[in-house]
Amino acid sequence: MARYDSLLDACGGTPLVGLPRLSPTVPDGAPPVRLWAKLEDRNPTGSIKDRAALFMVRAAEEAGRLRAGDTILEPTSGNTGISLAMVAKLRGYRLVCVMPENVSTERVQLLRMYGAEIIFSPAAGGSNQAVATAKQIAAEHPDWVMLYQYGNEANARAHYETTGPELLHDLPGVTHFVAGLGTTGTLMGTGRYLREKVDGIQIVAAEPRYGELVYGLRNIDEGYVPELYDAGVLSRRFSVGTRDAVLRTRQLVEVEGIFAGFSTGAILHAALAVAHEAVRDGRRADVAFVVCDGGWKYLSTGAYGGTLADAEDALDGQLWA
Amino acid sequence: MAIEVRIPTILRSYTGGAKVVEGSGDTLADLLTDLDSRHAGLRGRLVTDAGALHRFVNVYVNDEDVRFLGALDAKLNDGDSVTILPAVAGGAFGFAAAAAIASHAVSARATAAAR
Q1: Separation of alpha carbons A95 and B75, rounded Å
Q2: So what's the ipTM on this one?
Q3: For residue A95, which of A30, A88, A237, A300 is within the disulfide window of CB 3.0 to 4.6 Å?
Q4: Minimum distance, in Å, between the CA of residue A278 and any CA atom of chain B
């Protein structure tokens, strides 16, 4: 388990650790209710997105869409860009990321360090400007390959083939799986696998609820649902606000020593909700949830210290998950 | 007691700019009918002609998505908090930009297949 031929071979196989202090206490004689954290920050670039990036690039290679020296274009300000930059470097591709100019300095530095080129869209123009910039670049470079994580089946398949089997192997009695809802790849892939293997499994989504500025829509019809999303895979879906996400992120490091990003706090909030319901109903529960990434990239927000209200203000208008 | 309903910016033209309004009803459908009696047109932005929730609208009762609680038939109680949000999980930039150039991804596939 400890020796690999290259960094790409070390993707996945992350530890699942129990949270004895954060798991709710149950009355004497009642069945146990336990929380388990899957530490996806232990992937090569420090996030769960390494799995999807690797699978999407491999699928594009196998389909003949990507050949040595090709350029990959991805509009992202987050972990997917960092993961793709690492995979692109090791597999011999160039990566161009399009992102708004107001993303955190850590992200820009990480992307450049891994060798990605960055095209900024003006922050002042909001999402409409970002869309215009992305469209223009795509039109100017029709030969660039866009992996499009929101609709790429290899994104979900990465979790069907790796995350799901790993979880079931480590926790055969799993009753709930809780993860974040963004591209929906983690929940669709892992959820489908676990539904096939575990009777009565609950697949629970935690969706970050941002400040209104982040949504930047002018009307409902500008909304967007990722092509990968199939509501039939989910049992429940929670919307988690900034304050609850920050509170849980802090609890996770204070009580269990796990230093995670804020999306993980949102997921933990939903995991605790279903765990407490199980206690109330007197049912056994083994709730596995995803730690998406470590907290390092978010330290500059200042949201790990100070009051919850300060942290909420600091994250207002940002993409914290 | 009543049910508190949080209205997103893009729908506040129907509530006179109010961020939070109150309503009542035993189900979400009843609540929306009640709201529409004071905020005419609001219901029509949330519910399709076929009588289903609009694809790009998410409604949460006490932070839980109503689509998993019976959708418009979801049961409500006094004191519940209902939040209406446009569907853009994950933030505007990635989704909007990705959706905008999705057609590019398709054409890129065609290009790759042709060479």
Answers
A1: 49
A2: 0.85
A3: A88
A4: 17
